Amino acid sequence: MNQARRDVGVKYKDVTPGPLRDYIYAVNKERYGGDPLGPTYEFLKADGKTDAQIIKSSSRPNPDVNKLLSGFEEWLRGQ
After folding, report:
1. Each residue of 43-67: pLDDT tens digit?
2. DSSP states of the chain as a string?
3. Where are the domains of the chain?
4. Are the beta carbons of 37 and 10 closer than 8 angstroms?
């Protein structure tokens, strides 16, 4: 299921405009140990998450999207 969720993420990132997609990948790399697609199952388990917590969190969108995107302009200017 983790791979299926990551595949959906790739599908939608592929239709995201290039600069924003690059920013999303950069943020993910910083947050998730170098992985541009976000956390893997193994990453979450190593972070102390239970299977139940992983399942629950995978069913909802990121609540901090506005916070994550707030750094886009500054990031883009630095490119």
Report:
1. 999 999 999 999 898 888 888 888 8
2. -HHHHHHHHHHHHTTS-HHHHHHHHHHHHHHTTT-TT---HHHHHHTT--HHHHHHHHTS--TTHHHHHTTHHHHHHT-
3. 2-77
4. yes
Q: Let me know: does 54 contact 6? Beta carbons within 8 Å.
A: no
Closest CA to 38 of 15, 66, 13: 13
23, with CB counted inside 10 A (0-12, 13-18, 19+), is: buried
User: What pLDDT does residue 7 have?
Assistant: 93
| CB-based contact 54:44 (threshold 8 Å) | yes
**17-34 pLDDT, tens per residue?**
999 999 999 999 999 999
